[in-house]
Amino acid sequence: MTMIGNIIIGMPVKRVRPYGVGGVGWVRTDVTPSEDTEGLYDGWRRVDFGAGLMGFLGEVLGVN
Question: Quick check: 23 and 6 in contact, CB under 8 A?
């Protein structure tokens, strides 16, 4: 199970808008212990960051 909440912040530019995204969450793994997975925990906190562009094809239609 994975749960991550993100916030998107975009800059109001005409047809193409740059944006940044970031969030925090929790990842739960179900791993059977072995030599390769020794030291893994059952639940991990995660942070994610990213950036991109939003392009608008019309008044209400766009792509990321």
Answer: yes
Residues whose CB falls within 8 Å of the CB of residue 32, separated by 6 or more in sequence, listed in order: none
* Contact of 62 with 56, CB cutoff 8 Å: yes
Could you read off the pLDDT of 4-59 as tens digits, one per residue? 888 888 887 778 888 899 999 987 776 666 666 555 555 677 888 999 988 888 77
Please tell me the predicted confidence (pLDDT) of residue 44. 73
User: Taking a C-beta distance cutoff of 8 angstroms, is the pair 55, 19 a contact?
Assistant: no
> For the chain, which residues make up each domain, given as ranges?
2-63
